[in-house]
């Protein structure tokens, strides 16, 4: 074969076509990465909230039962934050709810917060204005 007929590289049209194909394929790939980065940020926030909740729950559960019972009586109901809650206005405010708990439903009204059992407290720790919380019972 003579040197003029032999092809030694890509032509301008082939290179242009390859760049166009890559550009078209990159758009969905970049969109997928953007979704992944957004999801990672949301997951990081949720993990931080979970750590806040578990830390506060451990702090509250380490308190003597008498202190928790006094705070529950002072709060008055299961929907009123107790004195173990963060001050108003802080970022990621953690609220702690304490209440007596009717574990045996002796009053047969199916409401766990009426007719509470002696020596049984309901504890709920929640991040304000989010659906994230931890709930447990404490026995004397």
Would you give an account of this structure?
- With 140 residues, this protein is of the alpha+beta class.
- It has one domain.
- Helices cover 44% and strands 16% of the residues.
- It starts with 11 loop residues before the first helix and ends with a strand.
- The mean pLDDT is 87.
Structural class, by secondary structure, is alpha+beta
**What sequence of helices (H) and strands (E) makes up the elements?**
HHEEE
Q: Mean of residue pLDDT?
A: 87
Strand content: 15-25%
Shape: rod-shaped
Helical segment tally?
2
Q: What brief labels describe this structure?
A:
alpha+beta, three-stranded antiparallel sheet, 2 helices, 44% helix
What is this structure's SSE topology?
Layout: H1 12-61, H2 65-75, E1 94-100, E2 120-127, E3 133-139
Give a quick summary of the entry:
With 140 residues, this protein is an alpha+beta fold. The protein is built from two helices and three strands, in the order H-H-E-E-E.
């Amino acid at each position: 074969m003579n040197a003029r007929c032999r092809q030694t590289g890509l032509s301008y049209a082939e290179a242009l076509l390859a760049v166009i194909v890559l550009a078209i394929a990159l758009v969905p790939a970049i969109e997928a990465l953007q979704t992944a980065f957004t999801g990672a940020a949301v997951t990081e926030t949720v993990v931080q909230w979970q750590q806040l909740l578990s830390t506060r729950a451990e702090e509250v559960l380490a308190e003597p039962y008498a202190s928790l019972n006094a705070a529950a009586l002072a709060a008055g109901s299961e929907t009123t934050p107790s004195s173990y809650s963060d001050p108003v206005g802080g970022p990621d405010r953690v609220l702690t709810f304490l209440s007596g708990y009717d574990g045996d439903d002796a009053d047969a009204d199916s409401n766990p917060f009426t007719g509470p059992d002696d020596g049984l407290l309901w504890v709920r720790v929640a991040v304000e204005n989010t659906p994230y919380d931890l709930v447990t019972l404490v026995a004397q």
